[in-house]
Amino acid sequence: MTDLSELEHTNSYYAATQRDKGIFPTFEGTVHTDICIIGGGLTGVATAVELGEYGQDVVLLEGRRIGWGASGRNGGQIIGGYGEALSIDPARTQAHFGAEAVDDLNRMSVECVDIIRDRVAKYNIQCDLRWGYLDVARNRREMRGIAKMFANYQGASYPHEIRLLDRGELRDYLGTGSYVGGMANTGYGHLHVLDLCKAEARIAESLGARIFEQSLVTSLTRGAKIRIHTGQGTVIADRVVLAGNGYLSQLAPEVAPELTRYVLPATSYVIATEPLGEDLARSVMQKNFATCDQRTALDYFRLSADNRMLFGGLCNYSARDPRSITGTMVKRMKSVFPQLSDVMIDYHWGGHMGIGLNRIPQLGLLDENIFYAQAYSGHGVAPTHMSGRILAEALVGDARRLELMAGVAHKPFPGGRMLRHALFATGMAYYKLKDELV
Ligand SMILES: Cc1cc2nc3c(=O)[nH]c(=O)nc-3n(C[C@H](O)[C@H](O)[C@H](O)COP(=O)(O)OP(=O)(O)OC[C@H]3O[C@@H](n4cnc5c(N)ncnc54)[C@H](O)[C@@H]3O)c2cc1C
To answer: How many domains does the chain have?
Structure first.
């Protein structure tokens, strides 16, 4: 599904409907720069925008197209939370970051969404942005978890309206009887994520960044001046940002082998129906709030601006695609929305996301001049923007928030390159089974 030999976007709803179909040049020759960013997903372009706003000299190298990776293929759901703060037990945030950092993490959990909100307004980005998000529960156990999350949000003085919903109230949001309740949150939302990513690349370019596509970094020579090699040239930089995330190790494992052990590429899939028409669309999602259930291998869905159902899920840790992605996903969609039984599926696709064992984004520094951010564990549209800001702050001299994130003790996946997918898939199968036992 994710053919790594492809140089163009996968055949997704986003690629077919992106507003800006223009491209960026391929890198050639030898160029000097202060900062070279490797990877043009949301982490890379968000970092480039922040650095551009600081007036920094930036070159960004993307191996395929801007947004080619997870950033141009995801569910488009803007969900806050950074370092797992807000939604989980504050005790867990404390255990990872220390008690005095809980407020900082809660603030970043809101800030990551505000960055998108503010940037879309500041630069007038056209990306179908809509606000409204639902966490839904399939049973009473999951509803107790949501109630706990609601209390965490309240305890953290979350600034947007949140509301617990019982089964009846949920009917005002979703045309399905699959859920016993949920939590509505007006502070999260959804958008056309490839349009956002591409627009952010254009903004970075307008602020002075030199951006190149189809410029895969094949090796990197470390030192005070880092030499970054592509097939057609060399960038010589004082500092590098590695933003290849779930694809870095697959496309060029030798670029930073020490990061590979901490991030496992898992696959998730999305189908996009034909446009449903206004009546059917409103009957399934009255308010078009982006929605996620509570499982490890969760269902997530929303409507696009042209009223297609974008239904995602089937998180797969085995690195093997299911025999029929459409067949499996349609079955899941129909089980939630039987009224969509007869609709056509116009697009289906999958993508890799970088998973970390503790599900906290991994940020840090190698060799004093190589910065990195990766492993958003399926939840990166907003958090990548926080990482971009933290990396840019550190690159211009304020490393406080980078040090906070880099201080987390991450654990490598066991099993080495050969066995880690198999071991992790077995572990996740256990959690999937647990999710089904009510
Ligand atoms: C199907 C799917 C659905 C998802 N749904 C959601 C959602 O609804 N909400 C949410 O918050 N998160 C979601 N996620 C997760 C989210 O998309 C990611 O966390 C986020 O996009 C990660 O962005 P990134 O820039 O770090 O990595 P990516 O977007 O993967 O970008 C990495 C880029 O680096 C490039 N690259 C790698 N190596 C090199 C190299 N050697 N040289 C040059 N370039 C290189 C790649 O080509 C790629 O474009 C989903 C992910 C998937 C796959």
So the answer is: 1
Domain contains 174 = no
Q: Residue 434, SS3?
A: helix
Q: Dihedral angle at the C-alpha atoms of 167, 168, 172, 175, nearest 10 degrees?
A: 60
User: 198 is in which domain, residue-wise?
Assistant: 13-74+194-255+360-413
Residue nearest to atom 9 of ligand 1 (CA): 77
Q: Which residue has the tokens 């097939």?
A: 231
- For residue 154, the CA-to-ligand 1 centroid distance in Å is 31
Please tell me the distance from the alpha carbon of residue 414 to that of residue 420, in angstroms, as a whole number: 6
CATH number at residue 41: 3.50.50.60
Residue with token string 């979703």: 174
Q: Which of 8, 87, 247, 347 best tests ligand 1's pocket when mutated (most atoms within 8 Å of CB)?
A: 247
Q: What pLDDT is stored for residue 416 in this prediction? A: 64
* Token pair listed for 89: 């037990």
Q: Residue 193's closest CA among 42, 309, 346?
A: 42
Cα–Cα distances in angstroms (integers) from residue 44 to residues 40, 119, 181, 276, in the given order? 5, 15, 37, 34
Least confident among 68-77, 134-143, 250-259: 250-259
Residue 137 lies in a domain: no
Task: Write out pLDDT tens, residues 13-62.
Answer: 999 999 999 999 999 999 999 999 999 999 999 999 999 999 999 999 99
The residue whose CA has the least distance to atom 3 of ligand 1 is 74
List pLDDT tens digits, range 344-393. Answer: 999 999 999 998 988 899 999 999 999 999 999 999 999 999 999 999 99
Q: Which amino acid belongs to residue 66?
A: I
In a domain? residue 274: no
Residue 319 placed within a domain: no
